[in-house]
Amino acid sequence: MVQEISHVNSQNNKYIIPNHRTSEGKKELNVQANVKTKNGKKLKVKALVDSRCTHTGIDEQLVKDKRIQTKPINFSFEVFNADGTKNGKMTKVAPLEIKINGYKKTLEAAVMNLDGTDMFLGHD
User: Mind listing the pLDDT tens digit for each residue in 48-63?
Assistant: First the structure.
């Protein structure tokens, strides 16, 4: 079963992602993830595990560069960095199968600007 983004669990349709630029001096947990796209492409990506993210996200530049298939969602919401600055609007997702150390999950990753990080692994 694919986990779909069907709503936003936050106030005022805002989605907050961490801003790793403000995490200087703090340790981050990054993992190597094997990703399979809907159209069969297999990629190895660096993924930041972050318990503050409500959804898994994939960097929009990676999506463009690797030509990862996306699909629009029937609503949009604003995305904010952890420091309160506006990141943009989320309007599409990338259906993915993610494998990390033997664990496999199929989900839809929110496509957004992650400022050079391939993926953020969130609560979903």
Answer: 887 777 788 999 999 9
Domain residue limits at 57:
11-18+30-121
Q: Among residues 60, 45, 52, which one has the least CA distance to residue 97?
A: 45
Region of 38 on the Ramachandran plot (φ > 0 left; ψ -120 to 50 alpha; else beta): alpha
Residues 98 and 82: their CA atoms lie apart, in Å, by 25
pLDDT band at 25 (very low <50, low <70, confident <90, very high): low
We report the CATH number of the domain holding residue 51 as 2.40.70.10
Report yes or no: 123 and 53 within 8 Å, Cβ to Cβ: yes
Closest listed residue to residue 108, CA positions, set 44, 39, 56:
56
Structural Rg of the chain based on CA atoms:
14
In a domain, 6, yes or no: no
Number of structural domains in the chain: 1
Structural domain includes residue 4: no
